[in-house]
Amino acid sequence: MNQSTESPAGRGRAGAARTTVIVLTHNRRDQVLVTLARLLDLPEAPPVLLVDNASSDGTVEAVQARFPRVEVVRSPCNLGAAGRNLGAERARTAYIAFCDDDCEWQPGALARAAMLFEAFPAVGVLCARLRLGNASGIEDPVSSLMAASPLAADGLPGRPVLGLVAGACVMRRDLFVAMGGYRRELTGAGAQTLFALDCAAARWLLLYCPELIVTRRAPAAPAAARWQQARDRVWLAWLRLPLHLALRETAAGLVELARAGHLWRGALGLWRDGAFARAERRVLPSALLRDWRLSERLRRRSERAAARAEAARRASPAAIGAALACDDALARLRRKAGSAAAEPALPPDPAGGISRSGDLHS
Predict the structure, then answer these.
(1) Domains in the chain: ranges and CATH
(2) What is the pLDDT of residue 335?
(3) What is the DSSP string of 148-216?
(4) Quick one: DSSP state of residue 274?
(5) CA-closest candidate to residue 198, choices 108, 292, 264, 266
(6) How far apart, in whole angstroms, are the C-alpha atoms of residue 169 and residue 56?
């Protein structure tokens, strides 16, 4: 790679930017125009590169007219997460920061990331804290999960993780290109996970650094369809897990396909389109497998808790009120029963008086 090659994506206002911001978009013209304006105003003056995933809403024309400093890479088709690979190939800085079209890197984060890369040569990827709305907004659940990573962080500037959010991370450009970027066969989450595992297997550290902040203005885009998530789960297992775990993940994936109503078609697609997974199978080292198990256990616990919280949120106010009333009634009954059990019954007063319980006897 010729580091002296200069393009619009390789020149910042100060001429010394070390990180190119790569924005990925598809048919979100209004959102991406806001994002580009704010990125170009960052004090680091980063080169900004836009990868357009075959938009049909005039995104490219609007960006070129309003922001001539932004280099635009047009993909002939929607490559999904793999569209970011086109931007990485075009960038000419040492580091690249990915950004979704409704997100913004906060001032100082890119400069701090470059300093961390230089101070810690074994770190390949830095994952930012993702907040909703603004820098003091609600923390995205994915960031909370990364903050709780069970992996040891001795002497490091962040928590080691085995995953990332593609639109909120900074990495060494040469590493991303050498690893082949994101696989087109997988959806966003699947491609991110495979890339993260391969980086870790190559002995690169991925760290969650909460001091690096990215904000998201709009609600996150819908996750991939349930059948796609199940398919990716199986393919990832056959790409990188030992046989017994691959078989277990396959069984779980088939159950998910059945629940999504895609069992037979999904199972056929797994075999027909999954030849790449069988051909490129490379089992993770045992130490990394141990870390993967720990991380997966935490992730699945978190998913179950989120599902319970979502079910509670969707419950109607009437149902919640009825449940609370029922709980209150049960509590009163328990108190009554406990009181009755603690106090022996007295025989009625033959003269017809008042018992200790306060009841009149006739």
Answers:
(1) 9-216 (3.90.550.10), 226-313 (no CATH)
(2) 59
(3) T--S--TT-SSEE-S---TTEEEEEHHHHHHTT-S-TTS-HHHHHHHHHHHHHHTT-EEEEEEEEEEEE
(4) T
(5) 292
(6) 27
Evaluated on CA atoms 59, 65, 71, 77, the torsion sign reads positive
Q: Tell me the Ramachandran region of residue 5: left when phi exceeds 0, alpha when psi lies from -120 to 50, beta otherwise.
A: beta
**Nearest alpha-carbon partner for 14 in 39, 38, 36, 43:** 43
CB atoms within 10 A of CB 162: 21
Could you tell me the end-to-end alpha-carbon distance of the chain, in angstroms, rounded to an integer? 103
Strand, helix or coil for residue 208: strand
Question: Strand, coil or helix: what is 260?
Answer: coil
Count, residues in the chain = 362
What does residue 130 show for φ and ψ, rounded to 5 degrees? -105, 120
Check residue 97 and give its pLDDT.
Answer: 98
* Whether 33 contacts 63, CB under 8 Å: yes
Specify the pTM. 0.80
Distance, CA of 166 to CA of 50 (rounded, Å): 15
Which parts of the chain register pLDDT below 70?
1-16, 220-224, 316-362
Structure tokens at 2: 């010729």
Residues 90, 57: Cα–Cα separation, whole Å: 24
Write out the H or E segment, with its range, that includes residue 249.
helix 243-259
**Backbone phi and psi for residue 350, each to the nearest 5 degrees, phi listed first:** -60, -25
Q: Is 330 helix (H, G, I), strand (E, B) or coil?
A: helix
Which of 109, 79, 76, 110 has its CA nearest to residue 96? 110
Residue 320 main-chain phi, psi, to 5 deg: -65, -45
